[in-house]
Amino acid sequence: MQVKHRFFIIIYGMTTQADSISLKKSLSLDGHLLLTLGLSIFAIAPLLYPGYFQTHSGFIPLWSINRLRENLADLSWLPVLTPFDPWRSGGLLPYYLAALLPATSLNALKLVSALGILAGSSGLYLWLKSWLGQQGATIAALVYTYAPFTIATLYVRGAWGEAFFWGILPWALLAATYLVGQPKIGFTIIAAGFWAGLGLSQLGLSLWAFLLLVVMLLIFHRSQVWRPAIAAGAGLIVAGLLIFPRLIHAIQPSPFKFSQHLVYPAQLLSPFWGYGLSQPGWEDGLSLSLGLAALGLTILSFSIWRGGPDRRPWLFAGLALFSGLASLTLGGWIWRIPGLNYLLTYPWQLLGFATLGLAVMAGVGFWLDERLRSLPIFGAVILFVLLPVYPNLEAQYITFIPDEPQAIYGQNEILLLSHAFFVDNPDASADANAEDRYLPVTGETYFGPISTLHLQVRWQAVAQPGQDYKIFAHLIGEGGQLISQVDIFPQNGARPTGTWLPGEIIEDTYTFKMASLKAPKPAQVWLGFYDEASLERLPALGDDEGRAFLDVR
């Protein structure tokens, strides 16, 4: 029992009075903690660029923060333009943190995202430093921070609630397990607070984290399982009570068949990096790799450890193995258990726990072999962790940030972000660039009997459209007459709507010819989508005939 008790004493760097190590000392800043935080700056670097970055969530987080700031007292507030599920959706905590910050919505979102990244690296370091040593804890924290799955969660999927979950997870585990050695009411409240924050970031994943905590307690200190488990459970109950009254009627299983989105073993090892979606089968558009550094250093640790008498590494190796298998086609049977498909959107979301297990295993070698702790090797391993993932930190940057969508089509399926009208510049030379060839339409623009009007638009899909829609654009005169019309696939067929990725911005231009000498002055363009085969229009918010009304001005 003493060995089991010391597992929590050592692994979390937290001790009882008998160990004569204070909490203050355990949490004090040291050189390697500062090094860990400093090296995490590369994961934050994309947030330092001006403007925004293109992700699957598009501008929805920014618009949701704006709306929340206008309705902070509204306890029924939910993120805009996207279905919100109490279990599977990114939680409310990051939104409220951003809304309360004295910064623009964009900067607030970036600050909260950076906080999550730094929380993950520092929390894991403090969790492990008294077991793995400072060097081992640093390597584990960096592997966790720079795992491809972690990077893709924020910078590809734009799942910033889930990204924040992975950031505070080490702190939630640390706070709960500290109660083994310090069963005091104050620490119990703190632990419950961390777990409430975890649940308010991603409730479904939090239940898996709670299962991990209980397993650790049962294996290593069964006699004191109750206080940490009750603290964590109470925190999750508080989170549930804050979320469920808003949407108890909206609880639904995942819209995706888990059997079609299980990962193939090759994908866990693949160097592929992409900005696409999870697709049925193995040709996913985003990386689901566990990472070269995580796998390589885990193999190194196993070669040194060789299944020795210390059982602690088995726990984290088992965590990585179970989470990985549950995401693979080999583990598809797990998802036949009733109710599990209510907790996650995709089965491969458990790869975050595999990342956690591999990160700990990556640091085990430094605990076992002091030669790895020498500066040249330690520095080389840091480079080994950072360099493979560094090219993936080049996010898809955009400087255009609309205040709100100008039109919404389908079931929040396609957004019109912006539009502008232009006419030909009669003074432009034949070799003039695009900016000089056109003049923006103003209230003083003269439309002659034979004129050309150009409409430039920016589209964005909230969810990938299920088919290839055709665009209709009708130029309407002041008296309601049809002057000219365009029926065309996006970008003249080069980018059909079925290929639009969520969050991707599609720019397009539609040209109207006014060839009649009796053509009335243009007043509006009616813009929308329809199915070419059935001629059925995609619904538009506010208009039964699927039209957005754009004033020509």
Topology readout:
Blueprint: H1 2-11, H2 23-27, H3 31-39, H4 41-48, E1 52-53, H5 60-70, H6 93-100, H7 105-145, H8 148-155, H9 160-178, H10 185-199, H11 203-220, H12 226-247, H13 265-269, H14 292-305, H15 312-327, H16 351-368, H17 375-386, E2 397-398, E3 407-409, E4 414-424, H18 434-437, E5 438-440, E6 451-461, E7 470-477, E8 482-488, E9 505-514, E10 522-530, E11 548-551
Antiparallel strand pairs: 1-2, 3-4, 4-5, 4-6, 6-9, 7-8, 7-10, 10-11
Helix pairs in contact: 3-7, 4-7, 5-6, 6-7, 7-9, 7-16, 7-17, 9-10, 9-11, 9-12, 10-12, 11-12, 14-16, 15-16
Walk me through this protein's architecture.
By secondary structure, the chain is an alpha+beta fold. It folds into 2 domains: 2-396, no CATH class; 407-551, Immunoglobulins (Immunoglobulin-like). It contains 18 helices and 11 strands. The strands form 3 sheets. Strands 3, 4, 5, 6 and 9 form a 5-stranded antiparallel beta sheet that branches. It has a 4-stranded antiparallel beta sheet with strand order 8-7-10-11, with no helix packed on it. A two-stranded antiparallel ribbon has the order 1-2. Helix 7 packs across helix 16, helix 9 (160-178) runs antiparallel to helix 10 (185-199) and helix 14 (292-305) packs across helix 16. The N and C termini lie far apart (79 Å). The model is unreliable at 1-23 (pLDDT under 50).
